[in-house]
Design a protein that fits this description.
Layout: E1 4-10, H1 11-14, E2 23-30, E3 34-40, H2 56-73, E4 81-88, H3 94-104, E5 111-116, E6 127-134
Helix pairs in contact: 2-3
């Protein structure tokens, strides 16, 4: 494969109630420099347990915990994040979510896009965050 695929999974395992069968991964380290992190939600990556159901700040904490872990597994650091996209199911969650994200990315200054969507893949998920990181050539 052209890129390193980290934490491969199949959607039939993640969403057993849905009739889908996609081979995906949590992170793609492209050309050894760029890291693409799949949208993260309030879910433990090792157990698939939903975390902080009904608590958007708690779900955001878990999403950012996942992003940090995945970026590090791909050889990067939070400081390497250049782009994040935040998906909210309710615009009233924006302040709580961005407060948590801001704490995790203090001093990083990534590009950020916020989108309000009608729903995420599961009704208990209130926020999803994806990220792109670039590891400098001199590291």
């Amino acid at each position: 494969m052209a890129h390193t695929r980290i934490r491969k999974f199949n959607t039939k395992d993640t969403y057993p109630e849905q009739n889908i069968d996609n081979d995906l991964c949590q992170v793609v380290a492209a050309k050894g420099t760029m890291i693409f992190v799949r949208g993260q939600i309030g879910q433990d990556l090792d157990t698939s347990e939903n975390i902080a159901v009904g608590d958007v700040a708690g779900q955001t904490e878990q999403a950012m915990t996942n992003i940090k872990m995945l970026v590090e597994e791909a050889g990067g650091k939070l400081e390497h994040i250049t782009k994040i996209t935040i998906y909210l199911v309710d615009p009233r969650y924006r302040e709580d979510v961005y407060r948590v994200v801001g704490k995790w990315l203090k001093g990083v200054f990534p590009v950020s896009t916020g989108i309000v969507v009608s729903a995420l893949a599961r009704p208990e998920w209130l926020v999803e965050v994806d990220a792109i990181a670039v590891i400098p050539d001199d590291e």
